[in-house]
Amino acid sequence: MVTLGSLLVIRGGIYLYTGQKAIPDDLMLESFYQLGNGRLFDTVPYPAVIAIVLLVAFIYLMRHRPFGRQLYAVGGNPEVARLAGYDVRRVKFIGFIICSLLAGIAGILLSSRLGSAVHVAGFGFEFQVVAAVVLGRGSLFGVALVGDDGW
């Protein structure tokens, strides 16, 4: 509920800042346009190439790097991960940073594809996101950076 409430507050701030109008790409750089609309070898869209590269990188990270094992451990059971010696707060914090970076990349690709930053681009997707979390067996109660012991 806090997340949805924050969404409405932030969306209201964006409406006030933009005047409820899209922010156009005044520079109209061809390279920025091609990032979201171009195709590699006139076949595969660049956003798909970027997604595949990120997918391969994260598969490698999660399967072959210590941080990936820590992330699996913290996601599975934070208390057991803490008892195993992992810094649960650090792993969660870095996980949130990674999610934010990926959201930023998605936003850049979307604005490139649309040719502007549109304030209503994600309007109405809230239910689909909640449904995806439920179907993915995610927690609807959120994740706290602070454990039960206050640290």
Task: Spell out the key features of this protein.
151 residues; mainly alpha; two-stranded antiparallel ribbon; 7 helices; 4 strands; 5% strand; globular; disordered C terminus
Given helix and strand content, the structural type is: mainly alpha
What's the order of the H and E elements? HEHEEHHHHEH
**Helix amount, in percent?**
55-70%
Order of adjacent strands in the largest pleated sheet: 1-4
Broad shape: globular
- Report the total helices: 7
Tell me the Rg in angstroms: 19 Å
Mean pLDDT: 84
Number of strands: 4
Q: In angstroms, what separates the terminal alpha carbons?
A: 24 Å
* β-strand amount: 5-15%
Q: pLDDT under 50 segments (min length 5)?
A: 144-151
Largest sheet: 2 strands, antiparallel
Description:
Helix content is 65%, strand content 5%. The chain is mainly α and 151 residues long. It has a domain of 95 residues. The chain has a two-stranded antiparallel sheet. A two-stranded antiparallel sheet has the order 2-3.
Short description:
By secondary structure, the chain is mainly α. It has helices spanning 2-18, 30-37, 46-64, 66-76, 78-83, 88-114, 126-135, and strands spanning 23-24, 39-40, 44-45, 116-117.
